[in-house]
């Protein structure tokens, strides 16, 4: 999983990781964060530790999730890594060979956030019905994008969905009120 923002977004990422591990949808998860902030809200290793501490100290299920995640880190089922590429102004098509090899070895790479999405599909004004699978064919393995729309870039929509969104009159591409999950196996 490639994280996006710290704080309110990183906690749900960690809860998703716990769910995937708890229900055995994954044996091991590598959480990629930035080595330093590319943008002020970017998640870094220290943010992961802070979020885990908050979870552990919370009552009820949140505390149980935090303890499971600490245990997962201690046993190697959850690993936090950084790579300089995540702060580079480059599309994923231009990722370095070591990162490409690492992501190729993963069963699935989940990319979170608007910037990761734009870096994945190409930060261009594509026709919104352009195939997500075609735009991500270069990616070295299965990939899923989880994104709240905050920019004009979007691909993979069905024509009828696009028409309904356009008819709504809302600024659906940039308002942060719409989200998508797209997967290429």
Any low-confidence stretches, pLDDT <50, length ≥5? Answer: none
Query: Over all CA atoms, what is the radius of gyration?
Result: 17 Å
Q: pLDDT average, as an integer?
A: 97
Main β-sheet, spatial strand arrangement: 3-4-5
Secondary structure: number of strands: 5
- Helix and strand content put the structural class at alpha/beta
Instruction: Choose one word for the global shape.
Output: globular
Description:
The protein is an alpha/beta fold. Helices cover 38% and strands 14% of the residues. It has seven helices and five strands; from the N terminus they run αβααβαβααβαβ. The strands form two sheets. Strands 3-4-5 form a three-stranded mixed sheet, covered by helices on one side. A two-stranded parallel sheet has the order 1-2. The two termini are 15 Å apart. The model has no long low-confidence stretch (mean pLDDT 97).
What labels describe this entry?
185 residues, alpha/beta, three-stranded mixed beta sheet, two-stranded parallel ribbon, 7 helices, 5 strands
Task: Summarize the topology.
Blueprint: H1 10-22, E1 29-33, H2 45-57, H3 60-75, E2 78-82, H4 97-104, E3 109-112, H5 114-121, H6 132-135, E4 143-148, H7 159-167, E5 179-184
Parallel strand pairs: 1-2, 3-4
Antiparallel strand pairs: 4-5
Helix pairs in contact: 1-3, 2-3
